[in-house]
Structures are given as structure tokens and as C-alpha cells.
Queue: 2 jobs
Job 1
Amino acid sequence: MDCRSETHRPGVSNVAVWAEAAHSVCRGRRCLIRCSCRGPRAADFLAVFCKKESSAHGKSYLATREGDCVFMMLVKLRAQATFRGPRLHPFSGSIVHVKVQNISSMVNQLESLDKNNLMQVHRDMESLKERLHDCENTSKNTEETFSVPYGSCDHNGLAHVGKPFLVQLNWKGSNHKYGGWGRDTAVPPARKNLYWVAPLNIDGRILEAFRHYSSYNDFLMYRNPTDKQLSLYLKSTGKWNHTNGGQGGGMIIHGNYFYYNCYNSRDMCRINLKTGAVERKTLPSAAYNNRYPYAGVTFQDMDFASDEHGLWVSYATEKSSGNIVISKLDVKSFSVVKSWTTTVYRSSVSNAFMMCGVMYAIRPVSRSKQEIFYMFDTKKDQGKKISIMMETLMEPVQSLNYNANDHKFYMFSDGFEITYDLTFNV
């Protein structure tokens, strides 16, 4: 396998490692690398990154990824590992096909490393090719049988949350740990390739500006952004005017608008992405200014969400005694159509999202796991307990958006942008 990599720093302090024929996910000095190498010496030349804790040196972990037969290793940099090469797009190519295409290259490298093990390596490679072939056929059949069309509710609810994929650090840097990010959530989207990022100030409250990109590549490279300034700096007074500013990480882009909680109020705000015009509407009885925020964060009293059925907002009121209230919004009039009150205390959950008219709430169960523990069906006007586990790379969960256009979660956590693939009950 032609494993070459380079180390670079996207943003301020995030270090990412990219490897050809190895799909990697990195955070700080820790890196998960999906690779296809096997044999006695595979770990020696595939060790391309290191972990902070010295006590962890020399340990490797193997796991499989459902539907793709991909091996995952947590590996450490060794002194003799001096690979060089171009940076690769994290989503480019199929890891399954890359494995097969690079078998001959891997054999050549292993031959130079250890000729005594060459025959064993050949046998391993042949076995691997057969397994990959079977896996590809199984994967194709599974996709044809169980795939759910994007934007469709032709399923029986969420079944499984995949592994977290760390994309990168937000454009403002590691000090900005709170905020949100994602894609246009309208079905169909107004702009299919639009990506947005909205880091809050270091105080974890104020939203002064956000930016969006016209392509995924531009988003990854932090290039050609369109910046939208919400708060204005007044030179005459030396102070900020937050009249059109926002607060909390409950923002979202739906269609041609960016929705958020107006600063220091129970008002909903939205800014037109084309004209820059800002509208605001009061959300009746909504608690605000950190009255009932999500657990582990501050000032996220209002959380906008979108699904196959349209635009929503969740919050709490004094009348609901802090329990989550869900409201369906009319996009044209920017007003509440109908509301439902749940039995879940808002400050006991770490976040919530909408999917096919159903609200799902999550809560932490450990430092590395969250549980989707409750769902409320607005069609049936009733809720029930469930249990779907999801791994987390870091804390806290500042923002979590579901996108019906690609069946993914978009999470903002500790300043990093993370995605999850989802599967459904059919």
C-alpha cells in the first residue's frame, strides 16, 4: 500500500494527517486511520501519527465499519516514519477499491521490509481480495434493498447512528468552542452545495457573524467564504451594537434564510442570505437568557431544527415548567403554526433534533457516549422512551442538526465540526 502523508494545521491548532489508501479521522494528536494493511509488518510502516499519552505507545486497536469491511487502527508515530506526499480530500475515493488497487504496491514495500514473511503476505493479500469482493457485493445488495430516498419518510424511524467523523476545526480557531455548522436543510435545498459555520464568541453566548461557502472543497480549505456580519462595531463609542446579533448555538440555515435566537430576547431572527435583510418575530412565552438552556452549554434557550416536513423550533416556557416545547413554523409568514409540550425537562438533555415530524432528545451517559433516549411524535401527540447510543469525540455537544438531504448529523463540539451517518428502520 502506498501510504504517504503530510502533517498540516487547518485553522489554528488542529493537526490533521492524511494518508493515501488510508481514510483518517484526526483530533489534535490523536488519529483514527482506516486501512487495509495486514501481515506481521503492516503496523510498522502504517504508523503515521502519535498520541499524547506516552503510556499508550505501542497499542493498536482493530474494529470494523458496518457495510464497508474497513479496518480501523489507532496508531502512533515512530521515529523512522517519515512519509511525505500530497494532502488528500477526506471523502475522495472508495476505501474498498483503494485497498485492492494498492495491493501490489504494498507487497513491494513489505518485501523490502521483511522478505521472510513475503509468502505469508501474499496469502494474506489473496484472502483480503476475496473478502473485499464479497464485501462489495454484499454492500451493493444491502444498499439496493434498504436504502431510504433522501427527503423521504418511507421508514420506521431512526435505527442506528454511525461512527463520528471529525471534519475539521472551525474557521475562528480552537478558542471558539461553541457554535453550529451544517448545510442547507430545506427539502429540496435552495443551494445544494452550501456549507455554513457560525462560531460563537469565546464567551459561549454572542453570535456576531457567520460565514458560508459555495462548495465542500472551499469549506475544507477555508477559501472563498461569504461573511455575514450580524453585530456592528461602532467606532464612535468603541462598543458593539448587538441589535441584530444572536446568542446560543441553536442556529440553522433553511432555504434562503439563516435562523437564530436574537440577542438578549425571546425573539426569533432570520437573515436573508441574498439581501442581508434581518427579520424578527417574538416567540410567545419562550424563556430566554439562559433560563432553560441545554445541559452543558449556556444561552441555548432556542433551538431551530429542520426535517422532511419543514422548519421547527424547540424551547421551554414557565408554563411548561421548563419542559421542551416544540413549535412548527411557517416559513413564509415566519410565525408559529402549532405547538406541542413534552414531558422532558429541557436542561436535562444535551440537544434535540427533528426527523419526519418526530423530536428526538439526547443525553450524556459517559464522556464518550450520548444516548438518544426520548422521542415525541407530533402526529400522534405522544412521547416515549427509546435507547439509541452514539459515540462522541469530545465534550460538550454544542449543536446537533439533522439534514434530510443526506441523512447525516452535523455536530459542533469543542470547536470542531463532526458528521454522523444515519440508518433507519425499514
Job 2
Amino acid sequence: MQVRFVGQDGEGLYGSVAGRHLCDYQHAIEAMNTLTARSPDAADLLLCVEHPPTITLGRRGGRASIHDTTLQVNEQSHPVAVYEVARGGAVTYHAPGQLVIYPIVQLPLLEPPIGVGPLGDLGGYVRALERCIVQCCAHFDLPTITREGFSGVWINERIKLASIGVGVRRGWTFHGLSLNINPHLEGFDLITPCALDGVRMTTMWQQLEELGRARPSYADVESDLLTRLSEALVRA
């Protein structure tokens, strides 16, 4: 499967992100709009990005879950952009250090059991994304869980590590997953994550440090998860 990295090197709020793929959220939306307008026989691909601080609202809304839109970094105030988007779920926060992957794949054409019938199985697709994240975390010695009735990947019922929110247009999936590798967590205080009271976000680095285990590089996690997704999302 093709992988496309969107963004450019540059300086982020927390210093250099040289060699990484910092991508304005509006640019990612435009890329997804273009890619989902293609014919069904066009190539599937994984859109891999890392966003500057951004808040997004899915189809479940949740503006009441946004507490502030100004991020304080090094005693300076930085406005955080807010986007209403056509994905499932409620409110999510993106930031540098968070791996974001948007699979653009023809859902009906994937191998069974996901690609069953003219519409495919969206729930099965979400479960496949979750499995890839769980397996990736296990590879780096971090145990995680999924929860019935709640999308994403969790450490336990109150601590969430990765979020998933997807949509389908013309058979193409768009939006996708975000995995917290090592973002600064204060930005999540701007929202109630996923509009779920009592839930807090964490990072791979934080959890592995608490367990006394080695912390992988961003690049190593990115490579592992992209490989797993490429192997899981295959056309029949």
C-alpha cells in the first residue's frame, strides 16, 4: 500500500520538528477531499501526518466539551484552531508528538470480513484499526485494551492512548486514527476528550516510563504501525 507523508519540516511550538511531517489541518482536509473524489479503482494509501495544536469536532459535536482555545506555552498564548469535520466521534485534540494516520481505502473492496457487501463493514474497519494499534503497542512492550461501546485504544477504563474517528465517502474511508507517542499533554486540558467526563489522555512515553521500560522513537512507532495497517487493509 502507498504511504504519503503530508507536511514540511519546520519549527513547532515546542521546538524543532525537523525531519517530521507537521501538517496544517486544513491542508489535510483538502488532501482527503481530493483523494476521496477519485474512482474506486485508484490506489489505496495511508496519509501520514503530524498536526500543530488543533481541536476537531466530529459529527457528534461537543462544543460544550471545549473549555478554551488558547494554549499557554513558555508564558506565551497561542490560539488553537477549531474545525468541524465529517468524521464519527466528538471532540479531539491534535498536537506535535501525536502520530495521525488517515487510511484512504475502498471499504467495500477490502478483504472479508471487512469488505462485505456494497458498503463494507465500517464497524469491522474500526476494530481493525484498533487491533493494529494494540499490536503496535505490544511490540513496544506496552499493554493496552479496547472497550466495548467506546472506540480507540486504552490503558484502562479511565486512561485513553489513541483515538479513532472515521467517515466514508464514495466508498473511500477518510479521517482515521491518532496515537499519542510523546505529545505535551497540557493541550488536552482544553477539552473533555471524546466528550467523556472522567477520561484523561496519556502517551506511550509516559506509560512506558511508569513501567520502567524503554521508550521507542517516533519514527520507530510510525514505521511499525504503517506496516501493520498496510498488511491489515488489503483489497480482496
